[in-house]
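Lecture 7 notes: from sequence to structure.

We start with a single chain of 522 residues. Read the sequence below before looking at the structure.
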Amino acid sequence: MSSKKLLFGLIAAVPVAALLTPFLALLLLRLWGSLLHAGSSDRRHAICAHVEEERKAAREQRRKSQDLGDDDWEKVENTASAPNGGVPKDTEWEGIVGFFHPFCNAGGGGERVLWAAIAATQRQWPNAICAVYTGDHEIDKSAIVAKVEERFDIVLREETVTFIYLTTRQFVLPSSWPYFTLLGQSLGSLVLAWDAFHLLVPDIFIDTMGYAFAVAFCKLLFPSVPTAAYVHYPTISTDMLASLDDQTGTRGIHSGLGGGRRGQVKRYYWHFFARLYGWVGRHIDVVMCNSTWTYNHIMEDLIHSIALTPQTSAARSRDNIILYIAQFRPEKNHSLILRAFSRYVHHLSHNSDPARLVMIGSVRANTPDEKHIYALRIEARELGINERTTFITDAPFSTIQEFLGKASIGVNGMYAEHFGIGNVEGLAAGLIPVVHRSGGPYLDIVVPFQGGEVGFHAETEQEYAEAFEKVAGMDGDAILAMRTRGRASSRRFGEGVFRDGWVKNMQELVRLQRKINPGKKS
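Now the structure, written as tokens:
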């Protein structure tokens, strides 16, 4: 054969290879999935057997406790067995729902969603098993179930929850990817997902933490497993892309980083990743979003706002406390609130009752969070407000309720906060919110209701300080009317709203699972 014919032959083979390569890749993934499915079958049977033993033990304990009138058992029964919003329970479906949440012990709003979702699933499908894929090895099941009740006031049926402990969580840590972090963490989530599926292939797979690549990987490996993603915050968004050109410094931690050669590289990289992220997202069966802001960025048609609201009086007397409930992480912008509070205290406040700032949030162990809160304490001292500022880490639910019941103002400082559950908690408890003019707090939560405002928006430290002064200057009737509207507004995001939305989408996943696997209970 002449060299010219060989060249033409190679050129002609290119489109054929382009067509065959995706097919062969998919075939190999399906084969790999079959092997993983078979390899984890023994563990699956062992988990089901262990859960059945725990169910029997729990039923026996309930029988023994019936004559004691134990309130906790009533809470468990109400959570696990009562019909959901009039929808009959599905007692026949006995499958395993896998919840992919590698940091389930972090204690933030994302974890609250996880446990509320599991509680709703247990209530509607009492015979199902909820398997949580986690990298938190330091605690056992009883400890984490007890912590969920203490931190979030959510009671779970311990016997139908199981934990699948992962050993490759380091692959999704930002510290493992000092360069091209978004892509690195996303690829790392594939390793973590492989770790999960190697241990157990569920009947339904749900990511509740933001690892879209892991969900798409599941769908490619196991086409018979319905998948879902609860999206708190898109991994990449148009707001992030726009922040590269921002010169005000108010649009998050990436503001103004698009200049120069390095900025152009970041810009091209982010645009490439955005396309890849969109392609991955199209492989997910059901997408749930927690706010208008997230919904608009995901560009999907499933949205369910979430919050779990405490019930306290809006009319009770309040202390002059500004309350910020948020994890101690850089993007929450606690520093902005410290500077605004300092400006308010030293330049604007004429209130005879000295104002206090209380910041409550979780701190993830062995992470930069610990250094971050240390730096915040130093900043408070440098600003001359340390004696008026209180930092509370990893507070139990009772402590959060205590401050929600006596604070006057609830504040949020994060740019493009996806939702901000602390803001809804504040509304429900009667606080006047002062939130960043962006994201979910601006679009969904602190919006006019019943013909009046429920709070204030701000962006700069001067605007925050002025908003604090406005609240301090309101007369009793005006502030009571605003608190009352705020509480009524918060009911839009109640626990029942989330539960109904979650069950509706879970029903679709169960329907898909039954359709793909007819004749099987699991």
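Residues 325 and 474 are 23 Å apart (CA to CA). Keep this in mind for problem set 3.
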